Records
---
Amino acid sequence: MKPKNTLFCRPAFWHGRKAFLLGNSLVQLTTLTGGGHIAELRFADAKGLPCLNPLWVPPWPTIEPYNYREETHRSRYGTLTEGKLLSGLAGHNLCLDYFGSPSPEEAKRGLSQHGEAPSARWRKTRIHLGSQYVALTLGVRLPVASLGFTREIKLRPNESVVYFKETVQNERNADHFFHWTQHVTLGAPFLSGNDSLVALPGTRGITFPHGYDENKALLPASHLFRWPKVRTTRGGTVDLTRLFLHRGLGFVVSVLLDPKRDIGFIAGLNPRLRLLIGYCFKRQDFPWAAVWEENCAISAPPWNRRTQARGLEFSSSPIPVPRREAFAMGTLFETPTFSVVPARGRKTVNYAAFLASTPVGFNRVDDIQFVRNEIRILGAGQRTLALSAGGLGESGGLNW
């Protein structure tokens, strides 16, 4: 008897928002068409595994961000500069073609935080459903940037790995310099100050040059440090692999990922819940990680001092600042701070996300490696957790 195909992809709703739900017998992923956000990645309920969604869900009701109108929604979400993004934000957010705030002149013309992509209407261009994999392709056009963008999300049977393939198409007759950031945000209850930690292969870092919203900065501005220890504005040091150490304060830092590595990663672990989420990517595509924490600091709406979230944002750019400031930087730590797509050309990146149920006592992530068709997570005491990842192929590369 032919085995039942457990792969699926179908339209869905998430908190009243239009979405697509992809899944196999092990995991499910929800992606929104409003902004393209990955809102949920979790184990299927019937598997007896921790089915908590590690991705951050805002504590405020969201809307389709392309429906944001400042005159109507300012009191709920803030001004257009940030409010358009915040009105629809969830989980894993794409920043394209800039990382940070628009200039005042750009904001007057309708641009919001982190570019056009996270506030635009994305459209389905293809669904493939077969016995070997299910794949959903969504596309969006960025008229101001003159870029086209597609994201393919792929799942294979009986794997807790999600394969992403993204392509930027330049519609101009000139080279285009831009920022490309995967703004992955994790949240409570997966993240907990008592139980959780994050990991990435960081080296040199610098704190945000403009402090933090409402003067609630945990860390001094423009301070150089070595990941993960950094001094605070109040004296002493903190370990940025730990979470929510100083309620009422927040921070942003930029970290150079180890230049000796071919594969970079970011990860979040809750040993008590025995749940791990991670992303792996080519370091040449995303050499930076911007690390952000909001710990009930911002009083303005929609934050209202009720959010605990940690962003682990792997990126072609280190610091979320207006593009004039970003491009004036040139390089940082002898490393480029932007992406380039040639005139009428295209650029493609691949990366993977995964979930794992960890064994008792697995309380630290030291490294994540690709070995043939497996993702291997190395923990304390040489403990190793291996995940099947047939989409990597025998070469163990990000080239599907």
---
Amino acid sequence: MFLESQGVPFLSIGNPALLDLTFVGIFASVKCPARLILAAHDAANEISAQGKAVIGGFQSPVEKEMLEVFLRGASPIVICPARGLEGMRIPVAWRQKNDKRQLLVISPFPATIKRPTYETVIERNRLVVNLASELLVVHAEPGGKVEALVKEVASSGKKVQRLSGFYP
């Protein structure tokens, strides 16, 4: 299905009504300290128990772990792959959420984008930030894409929480 939000056109699979919810955007760099992995799991359980809606790319290992928690819990989920959706099949693990109309997969990318690239990840992350009302950053690797995004967002006044406190 073709949708538009905040002037950004995208394709979708799942329940487009989820876009009316307030989201916690989930971010974690690919490299994440081991001490934060358990904290991320605990945070995902807490968010899920509260039934808060979540949005993210769920691409890094920690984000994937958190997605597994969200899939088992009460949270509505919006997944934003950094590639086109054409030909994409809903993974078996996502189907129960999709059947309950608690899942939406969205992408602004055309069918020609079959794999994530540096550029599509950055664009996807900006889409997540724009749709989220607040961000939870598990870890931002110094010098990485997530750190650059967090610095950009923090200056905008949007609430950005990390597991060990708040970004300025």
---
Amino acid sequence: MKLEDEIVQRKFQTETHKLGVNIIYTFNWINAFQTKLLKKYGLTPQQYNVLRILRGQLPNIANIKLIRERMLDKMSDASRIVEKLRSKNFLQREISEEDRRACNVTITQKGINLLAEIDKEDVAFAKLFNHLKPSEIKQLNDLLDALRG
């Protein structure tokens, strides 16, 4: 559906302005879908992102700094998210022996199992992009990469 119809706005200042609004609107559309999907697993998108980072780090240990650097939402409080996931037994957090100010963080088997369950939802997530051909998906990825410079 066209952006103009979705937000009931017939005219934009410029195509560039429309592009900015379109990207923000589309982000929120995808984020709402992901938030609803993850809610049934008791996770927020930020918590899910941290678990995926930790799974990707295996067999290496991560720390809060690494997690913060890799998070999609740079405004998230990585320490608070790690503590919330630790309280749910999805990860382990231990004080680093090399640097007592730092924490080593690893995903638990329970966290890995949860991600495996969520991975089954990839089909539902992929359906968001059914209106695009594979070549258009690649082109859009390339354009978004170019936009960020």
